[in-house]
Amino acid sequence: MIPNRQEDSRTHGKGRLGALLEVLAVSTKLGLTSFGGPIAHLGYFHDEYVRRRKWMDERSYADLVALCQLLPGPASSQVGIGIGVSRAGLLGGLAAWLGFTLPSVVALVLFAYFVRGYDIGSAGWIHGLQLVAVAIVAQAVTGMKRQLAPDRGRATVAVLAAAGVLLWQSVYTQALVIVAAGLVGWRIYRQEGAREEAPGLRVPVGRIGAVVCLALFAILLAGLPLLRSFGDAARWLAMFDGFYRSGALVFGGGHVVLPLLERVVVPAGWVSLADFSAGYGAAQAVPGPLFTFAAYLGTMAGGIAGAAIAIVGIFLPAFLLVVGALPFWNALRGSPSIRGALAGINAAVVGILLAALYDPLWTTAVARPADAALALLLFLLLAYWKLPPWAVVLAGAAGGMLLGLLPV
């Protein structure tokens, strides 16, 4: 499919390079200022791309958001990539991703180097960041439950998903739970999934190019595990495979990637559990997508090269899936079966996040009543006082230092 003539003339009037630089500049601005998580990011995108710049109309933006919610990966980043693709082609999608992610990547790489030279075991403020992570994930669970598991049936799916993840801890568990929930949703909720027809999205990507992207996504997902046991670069392949799999198999994005990443880096000995929780807490204080937490983990595991491998690995599936799915979305978006499966998958996402709240976050950070009290206070500041995440991070760090002064 091709973009409409009006949009195409505006883009070519600026020239290809001008359009790319414009996308990069606007997305970098968003990467520096978009605090608050995926839902907030979508609000920032709407204000900047739709309301102010009119790069996309309201209905097309809503369709793009719906597609990215259906795909695995970081939804807000995928929406940004889709807007970049529609504005300036494939390189526009790359520029939109780069601008949105680079600020938080730089911040988290610097934080990782600071932590690597620090005695993290005796740092009260690090413990405070671990408790911040508990509070933020608890807030995410409560918010997502209201939206994605509002009735008895979907709440049941969520609880069973949490139980499955906790009882059978494997790198494949989350994917299997999501597939099972999708089948349940397809069977039960497909009659609720139909929606009115709407004008299709216009994207400058042909179906042949889309098929190539989807094929590459599948080849990497299946082939990387087979390559891990070969050659001297086996560790780098293992890292790339682990982060790629995390980006390819997580639905719901953001906080839901936490258990997958933990199972990639902690058992392998690349990052300690304490470092993992501290970095996750710090990731709440920076703008941009939460998936850039991978930059911190990659730096802890292998320096700048590790950060590059982690970031490319975790975001590559998102890029391939968005580009591969856009030309086909118009034919699929009205399917009741697709909508029904999505209802079940979204409920399972709530359960997976609930399981992550307990293990590894609660079991790692909360060891005494004072820890639980601080975590509850931080949750109060987030959920009811509506403090921005960076302010809660500062409060958590200060609270952790005060806890360190208390007798054990």
TrEMBL record:
Keywords: Cell membrane, Membrane, Transmembrane, Transmembrane helix. The chain crosses the membrane at residues 90-113, 125-143, 155-188, 208-227, 248-266, 278-297, 304-329, 341-358. The keyword Cell membrane applies. InterPro entries: Chr_Tranpt_l_chain (IPR014047), Chromate_transpt (IPR003370). It comes from the Bacteria. It is a multi-pass membrane protein. It is found in: Cell membrane. Belongs to the chromate ion transporter (CHR) (TC 2.A.51) family. This is Chromate efflux transporter. The lineage of its organism: Bacteria, Bacillati, Bacillota, Bacilli, Bacillales. The gene is chrA.
